[in-house]
């Protein structure tokens, strides 16, 4: 499974490219992240970082980076 996002321009350029290997028989499911689901996912990531990361400072930096990224999307 893969994805490719190209930026408009002359010439067009690749903004992101992803490739994942799926086990045989697995069918990918497309999910559109609306604001509510994006918040649930981010909250879950923040919770897991706080609970499972052994370095509290690194976890906090990652949480702050995630929040900054989400705010930039708005």
Mind telling me the C-alpha Rg? 16 Å
Order of helices and strands: EEHH
**Helical region count?**
2
The percentage of residues in β strands lies in 15-25%
Q: What is the quaternary state of this protein? A: single chain
Q: Low-confidence spans: pLDDT under 50, at least 5 residues?
A: none
Description:
The chain starts with a strand and ends with a helix. Helix content is 49%, strand content 18%. A hairpin with a 5-residue loop joins strand 1 and strand 2. The mean pLDDT is 89. It has 2 helices and 2 strands; from the N terminus they run E-E-H-H. With 74 residues, it is an alpha+beta fold. The protein has a two-stranded antiparallel sheet. It has a domain of 44 residues. Helix 1 runs antiparallel to helix 2.
Q: Helix and strand layout, with pairings?
A:
Blueprint (H helix, E strand, L loop, with lengths): L1 E6 L5 E7 L15 H18 L3 H18 L1
Antiparallel strand pairs: 1-2
Question: Summarize this, please?
Answer:
By secondary structure, the protein is of the alpha+beta class.
Characteristic terms for this protein:
alpha+beta; 2 strands
